[in-house]
Amino acid sequence: MKKKNRVLALLPVFVFLLLFAGVGIISNDFYSMPAIVAFVVALLVGMLQNRSLSFNEKLNIISKGAGDVNIVTMILIFLMAGAFSGIVSAAGGAESTVNFGLSIIPPGLMVVGLFVIGCFISISMGTSMGTIAALAPIALGVADKTDFSVAMCIGAVVSGAMFGDNLSMISDTTIAAVRTQGCQMKDKFKQNFLIVLPAAIITIALFYIRTGGVHVDTVEVLDYNIPQIIPYIFVLIAALIGLNVFFVLVIGIVLSMGIGIAYGKFTVIESFSYIGKGMSGLFEISLISLIVACIVSLIKENGGIELIITFIRNRIKGKKGAEFGIAILTILVDLCTANNTVAIVMAGPIAKEIGDEFEIEPKRVASILDIFASVGQGLIPYGAQLLSAATLVKLTPFDIIPNLYYPILMCISAVLFMAFRKHNKNA
């Protein structure tokens, strides 16, 4: 492929977007076209390009991309995170964590509590979807017992879910952001936490102001067991102090198995089925990660990545401009894919090249990737998070969006961070 025609190297990306977004618009359902199908078609298109390379040479190129240590590590951690999520939930960890939070929060602060609990659940479970599924029925119950609107209650839940979605050590988005940038999980967490903390505090204040003085009935006290919460706490603390996340998850799985068996939730034999179910929940994103790595390898070989870097380099100045370029790229990809993990997997390699080009710390790039993917995912009405939340409480996504303070404030906080926070030359 001649250098002057290297824009054609991006054809697989355009094919994917045309298929995925086009079918979604036509059918009015962005999930009618499975992302993995669209990516496979895009890969086939990439394999047909550049006749100067033989088919076997192209296979070697994509094999090197798929076999990259970061890709393999990312997929292994995906699977272990899924296994942990499956077994700890089956052991009663998710239910006890929710009930514990609800039991210690005063009734008058229930909406604030829904947000705070959502933050803790999502950072513990590593899934915004799982958090919404667990808390949506409770949000309905809170609305029934108070004068708070259902839209505000579920808005607090979704806001809390998005808090942990880009912070949790076992979130697929966090894993993808860290592995594509080659930084440490704990370093990315600390950087990310500093950025979003002001947004979380202001969100709490806004929900408190909105719900002040509203009549609330006594909320039922729910049962919980502290030992069932321990695996979540262990994984969070162990990952933060720098232990290898893979081994941390293995220990978390063993702990959850022991606790589940002790509480009679399952037998040893049954525990393996829950581990398998948890893993299967991340099979698709693991396959997508492999296929995207193959596509990116072909695009890079054909000059597509260089084209993007040159385009951005010619239109931005310095590190701040590069960071805003990464943020815009990430949001645009998320708007097209309606999946923040896929957006990170797609934009990650390009962001890595931009970060290296402008000497931006990997932890900073990873945080920007994860935050802006979550910003987009937390606000688009056709994203899985808002669609599931709206369905569970019988509202429309547009009813909920005005109550989504946190994603909006997270965006503002990240923009201010990029604009005013100096780079650490020693990082």
Q: What does this entry look like structurally?
A:
The longest helix is centred in the middle third of the chain and has 27 residues, at 185-211. Helix 3 (55-66) packs across helix 14 (283-301), helix 6 (110-125) runs parallel beside helix 8 and helix 10 (185-211) packs parallel to helix 18 (362-379). The chain has helices at residues 11-27, 35-48, 55-66, 69-90, 93-104, 110-125, 128-145, 150-165, 172-181, 185-211, 226-240, 245-262, 268-280, 283-301, 304-313, 318-337, 340-357, 362-379, 384-393, 397-400, 405-420. It is built from 21 helices and no strands. The chain is an all-alpha fold. 76% of the residues lie in helices and 0% in strands.
**Share of helix among residues?**
over 70%
- Count the helices. How many? 21
Distance between the termini: 38 Å
Gross geometry? globular
Low-pLDDT parts are 1-5
What fraction of residues sit in β-strands?
under 5%
User: Structural class of the secondary elements?
Assistant: mainly alpha
Can you write the helix and strand succession as a string? HHHHHHHHHHHHHHHHHHHHH
- Report the average pLDDT across residues: 85
